[in-house]
Amino acid sequence: MQPLLKVENLVKHYASGRSARSKDKLVALDGVSLSIPSGKTLALVGESGSGKSTLALCIASLESPTSGSISFEGIDLAALHENQLRLLRPQIQLVFQDPASSLNPRWTVLNIVSEPFLIQRRFTKPDRAIRALKLLDRVALPRKLASRRAGELSGGQKQRLAIARAIALEPKLIILDEALSALDCSVQAQISNLLLELQSSLGLTYLFITHDFAMAAHLADQIAVMDRGRIVECGPAEDILHSPTHEVTRTLLAATPRFSESPSELVHA
Amino acid sequence: MKQRHKLTKWLVVLVALHGIVAAAGFFAPYDPTEQDRERPYLPPMHVHLMDAQGHLHLRPFFYPFRLREGSFDQYEEDTAQIVPIKFFERGTRYHLLGFIPSRLHLIGTASTRIYLLGSDAYGRDQLSRILYGGQVSLLAGLLGAGVTLLLGALIGMAAGYYGGWRDELLMRIAELFLALPWLYLLFALRAFLPLAVSPLEAFLLVVVVIGMVGWARPARLVRGVVLSVKERDFVRAARGFGASDFYLLRRHILPETASVLLTQAAILVPQFVLAEMTLSFLGLGVPEPMSSWGNLLATLQQYNVLVSYWWMYLPALAIVPFFLGYLSLATALQERTSPYKMEEKTSWNLS
Amino acid sequence: MLYFLRRALHAVFLLFGVSLLTFLFSALTPGNYFDEMRMNPQISPETVAALRAQYQLDRPLPIRYAHWLNAVVHGQLGFSFAYNSPVAPLLWARARNTLLLTVTATFLAWLLALPLGVWSAAKLGRAPDRVLSSATAALLVIPDLVLALGLLILAVRTGRFPTGGLVSVSFDELSVLQKLRDLAMHMALPVLALVLSTLPMLVRHVRASVAEVLNAPFLRAALGHGISHRKLLYSYALRAAANPLISLFGFSVGTLLSGSLLVEVVMSWPGLGPLLLESILARDLYVVIGGVLLSMIFLVGGNFFADVLLYLADPRIRTAASAK
After folding, report:
1. In this structure, what is the dihedral angle of CA atoms A196, A202, A205, A206, given to the nearest 10 degrees?
2. Does C315 touch chain B (CB under 8 A)?
3. Beta strands A75-76 and B100-109: pairing type?
4. 3-state DSSP assignment of residue C143
5. Parallel, antiparallel or unpaired: strands A205-210 and A41-46
6. Does B236 touch chain A (CB under 8 A)?
7. Percent of chain B with pLDDT over 90
8. Closest approach of chain B CAs to the CA of C55, in angstroms?
9. Which of residues 151-190 of A touch B (CB under 8 A)?
10. Which residues contact A30 (CB under 8 A, 6 or more apart)?
């Protein structure tokens, strides 16, 4: 059974300094490999600057890697032409951390949710509206918000909207890049439950990027720990949480209140 | 909220001003090309309510001018004739907005012509000429600004969106254009194009030349907006759905440039109207018989006109309310986008 | 030092760009300019042939540019048909007159703008400031063409000021003092027009820069130490606000040749402006090219001058440059 997503030895360099020819480069990803089986959740934990967001952008084909491969259902994404990639893009979606910048504040809620349909040129206009409203129901956003501008919504509502937009094209893989980090605690809980519910009903696979082990514990089947562009440890969630081997993992765990005293049973069953 | 009021106020003022010029046919008593060789250089006529005998009239009237005894260019009022001024009169035929035929004029007189702002060397009514001339000058300014903004927006978007060497090159060229004095650039451009052209060709030439002069600043500003919007996550998200460059530019990036472009428009239009006036005044712009505010002023280059016929200066004043309106609109727009107000800062004042 | 080199290189680049632009304008005109010249009876066919040879009109564009650039660098700016003389001396004579006007006007404008702007900033929001702001706003609304013409008419009707020319006809017969007075009378109107058109913007800029600086804590501290208001304003605040003002000054210097074109034409002042206009109307192309080039060189030079001033005036730029 091949994994849905398989990343092998992904390397990404950024040229720093003003000239493209400058020798200084920023190594964001230094040979990252991971795989996610279909229907499961892999949590990617790491500090800021460890390269998590870069990895997310590469997998979503919004940045091109310097070397390495990204296989989705066995297809190598890097080898595809933009036109071919466009056919595959609906299957891999990204939810960003800050909904204030990932949603165009001037657009209405309805337009934002139906934007994927518009770009992929699917369905007729009235059909798009109907499907968009159904998506709003799916993420428990009241329909009366449909004509409001995105800038007027609360943080939690915005993130629900971002999720609604992400599932519009019925993707198989959703990458959540610190999607809950900007929300209040209570809202976090609501949204993570929504995510779990969507996963089971739609058969989604998640790559959940976070710096918070507690969140990872709640959602993940597997956990990978990232540090300075490399995966330092990877394995089933219980193993990582209860018996971490790498020093970085231990440091991160120690910083998380819930796991620094005694490991609790807050593991996704 | 107060800003909103200011904005609407000046917008209304400008629309009214433009409306008057656009409906020049209605507001002008006569056809601007209608000559009266027997009445050259008439000074502006006075409108009276009380006649020489001290009677008050209900309807305003005027005394026609007649030549003073022994003079060939000094006029005085002929108090023997009273010519009433009628409103909403039928007069010479004109076409409103170029295609609606009408004969209705705001002001009309039965017999003798009234020259509210005087007449020129051929006896043509200055008021009518100023109103019709405004159409040409304002149109040149608006079209010129349109060309500039279009050019600036396209170049700015290309530079900002594609980046790299294209950006470098375009911005260097923009820097060059920004460094040049616009009047000289205007002249240089105009100089190297043929001089003797038909009025329509001259008009289009003026518009194109004016339009090509000022694109650098809008381009820079648009580029700035594009650079900042380009990195926003909602643009990334749209790309994640497979959006093309064109879609991103049109649907997400362009709307963000609207406020910058509007402010620039408010600043550029009056400048370009002035540019047309300057060119035409110097004989490089719109030629006779087409009248524009610029070539109406050209007669002032003759010394005798300057000395004796001061009312020929009046077309120059016509642009002042427009300048006021546009500049105030620009200030109001700028205040709206950058709410930093100097006056409200709690600064201690040196008493 | 590196800063200088960079700015100098930048200025050279601009000059190249300007020269290229000017050359391209002239080279790409529709209609063969030399055909028009040949039809002009005042110019002998030998002159036309000589010019053709000199400017290599049959060669491709880059070669022509190289030849033209070579000629320019050697001070040969072409030949004027209307005046029947080489262009360069013609330009210098007129440029001198223009500079006489603009230097005086710029000097006066800055002399007035600095205290007015500083005072306005000091009384921000209060009556004097508001009055001054209204006055500048009113002046800004009147474009320079309208202003210049208006002043001219006023002068003509009052008959007090001469309405054109550099000096009176009887100039040579006057004593030195009378000569100066005569010149001053002739200059009065154009200088007034120039000052009135540039003053409002200057005052606004000075006011804005100084007002921004007046909020700074270090000034409050100085006041607490007990220095006088005038010293505070001029020695401290103005110095701190100097950067944008120095750039502005550089710009003023840069427009010394080009800024007075309209005023000169309207007021019949024998400077570069009227020359440029005449040449355009007479299709005396080399004069036009020379004039445009000269004023653009001034502009680039002015900006570079501002860069130099900034370097000398602002220690931050000096240290930043040497740290690199």
Report:
1. -40
2. no
3. unpaired
4. coil
5. parallel
6. yes
7. 26
8. 17
9. 162, 165, 169
10. A11, A51, A228, A229, A230
Q: Which residue from A110, A162, A111, A101 is spatially nearest to B256, judged by alpha carbons?
A: A101
* Predicted-assembly ipTM surpassing the 0.90 threshold: no
Q: Which chain C residue has its CA at the smallest distance from B186's CA?
A: C292
Choose between C324 and C298: higher pLDDT.
C298
Q: Are B213 and B147 in contact (CB under 8 A)?
A: no
> Is C165 in CB contact (< 8 Å) with chain B?
no
Whether there are 3 or more C-beta pairs closer than 8 Å between B and A is yes
> Which chains border C (3 or more CB–CB pairs < 8 Å)?
B
Q: Is B150 helix (H, G, I), strand (E, B) or coil?
A: helix
| Paired tokens of B67 | 């030549």
What is the share, in percent, of chain A residues with pLDDT greater than 90?
15
To 10 degrees, the CA torsion angle through C93, C94, C99, C100?
80
B196 CB burial (10 A radius; 0-12, 13-18, 19+): exposed
Q: Does C265 touch chain B (CB under 8 A)?
A: yes
What is the identity of the amino acid at C291? G
DSSP calls for B230-288: HTSHHHHHHHHTT--HHHIIIIIIHHHHHHHHHHHHHHHHHHHHHHHHHHHHTTSSPPT
- Side-chain-side CA neighbours of residue C173 (13 Å): 3
pLDDT for the residue numbered C222: 73
Helix (H) or strand (E) holding C79: strand C79-80
- Going B183 to B184 to B189 to B190, the CA torsion angle's sign is positive
Lowest mean pLDDT, pick from C64-73, C139-148, C272-281: C64-73
Q: What integer pLDDT is reported at residue A206 of this predicted model?
A: 92
Which chains pack against B, by 3+ Cβ pairs within 8 A? A, C
Asked if residues B83 and B62 have their Cβ atoms less than 8 Å apart, the reply is yes
Residue of B nearest to A82 (CA): B242
Q: Do C149 and B193 touch (CB under 8 A)?
A: no
Contact criterion met (CB below 8 Å) for B106 and B131: no
Please tell me if residue B255 touches chain A, with a CB cutoff of 8 Å: yes
Most confident of A75-79, A223-227, C81-85: A223-227
Q: Is the pLDDT of residue B322 over 90?
A: yes
Q: How far is B77 from chain C (nearest CA, A)?
A: 23
Q: Which residues contact B296 (CB under 8 A, 6 or more apart)?
A: B126, B129, B130, B133, B312, B315
How many CB atoms neighbour CB C57 within 10 A? 14
